[in-house]
Amino acid sequence: MKQRKPRRMQEISRLTKDFLNAQPLQSAEPQAPFFSVITPSYNQAQFIRKNILSVLEQTDGLPHPDVEHIIADGGSRDGTVDVLKEFPHLKWVSERDSGQSEALNKGIRMATGKWIVWINSDDFLLPGALDKLRAFLEKTPDAEFIYSDCQFVNVSGRSTQVRKAFYHEDPSALYYWWRRGAGFGQPGSFFPKALWEKYGPFDESLHYTMDFDFWLKISDYVKFHYIPECLATYRLHDASKTLEGWKPFTREHMKVERRYMEAKGGWLKWKFRWLLELMYAKSLILEGLRCRDAGDKKRAKDNWMEAFFTHPLGFPLSRPFVYYVLQTITRVPLWKRLKEKIDKDDPTIA
């Protein structure tokens, strides 16, 4: 027996078809949308509906000529395409690709809007996000890149953390960006298509840090503007790339930063080569401590050996490791307390 669609979905589908089939009152060419929402997708059927509805809810649950939603799917086989077919207003393609970067570039090439809103299939926009973005742009018409705070959510969509965004414009920005990533979440960043056309496309050889690579490219030429509100979510779950593995992400991060340093040359190149190796060693040391706490002594040892050969000064300069040693000697839970601060994303901890 064929399963009936929920009443709300039937109504959205009917109104969408009416909107698409309506005859224009004038023969003038249709106005291009202001926002192009780009969603790379692959096997995220359990989340994609929420993503689509969050964009529709920006315009009271109905398609709007000012907003187009483009989904570049990588050939999903989990029912994602069936969900996409329920929404006639979508512009979408489903075919095999090399990964998220290729899908993202493909979606942006399809875009006809002025501003790009990149929101992955497992993430979603918060209510009123596009209205707030539009209001900011009306006050700051010369803005070329905008970043905002980001709300982290779990698999069920419940908020777990609000990540406050930050950005350093001084020459040492690379150091701060390494310590805490780019300083703002990818779903909380917005840019005009013209910026991508000038400095893009996204590097399709990258699978974790294509966004960070792009931010670095434009940071020397474009002023970054901040909206101190959460406009989108970032979902953490077992299938998210953020949780796939620490080392692949970190190594790709280093690759991007090294490439940026080589291009800069001069004193910055030599200064940050040393700092990068030190920060990577300290990251390995911290990961080793986490592995040891989890009872995986072999992985802890492997991380520490790699840290030693990367930059031996990482050990005495690592607060977590020093606290761990002192805790072992004195039995005072110094490392345990510090770990709690680190888990809360304390920006003062190197």
Query: What is the string of helix and strand elements?
Result: HEHEHEHEHEEHEHHEHHHHH
Approximately how much helix is present in the residues?
40-55%
Give the total of beta strands.
Answer: 8
Low-confidence sequence ranges: 23-27, 346-350
Q: What structural class results from the helix and strand content?
A: alpha/beta
What is the CATH topology of the largest domain? Spore Coat Polysaccharide Biosynthesis Protein SpsA, Chain A
Radius of gyration: 23 Å
Give the number of helices. 13
The separation of the N and C termini measures 59 Å
Describe the 3D structure:
It is a single chain. The radius of gyration is 23 Å and the shape is globular. It has 13 helices and eight strands. It folds into two domains: 7-243, Alpha-Beta Complex (Spore Coat Polysaccharide Biosynthesis Protein SpsA, Chain A); 265-343, no CATH class. The protein has helices spanning 7-21, 45-56, 80-84, 100-110, 129-139, 173-180, 193-199, 210-219, 246-264, 266-293, 297-310, 319-330, 334-343; strands spanning 35-41, 67-73, 91-94, 115-118, 145-153, 159-163, 189-192, 224-235. By secondary structure, it is of the alpha/beta class. Strand 5 (145-153) and strand 6 (159-163) form a beta hairpin. Strands 1, 2, 3, 4, 5, 6, 7 and 8 form an eight-stranded mixed β-sheet that branches. 46% of the residues lie in helices and 15% in strands.
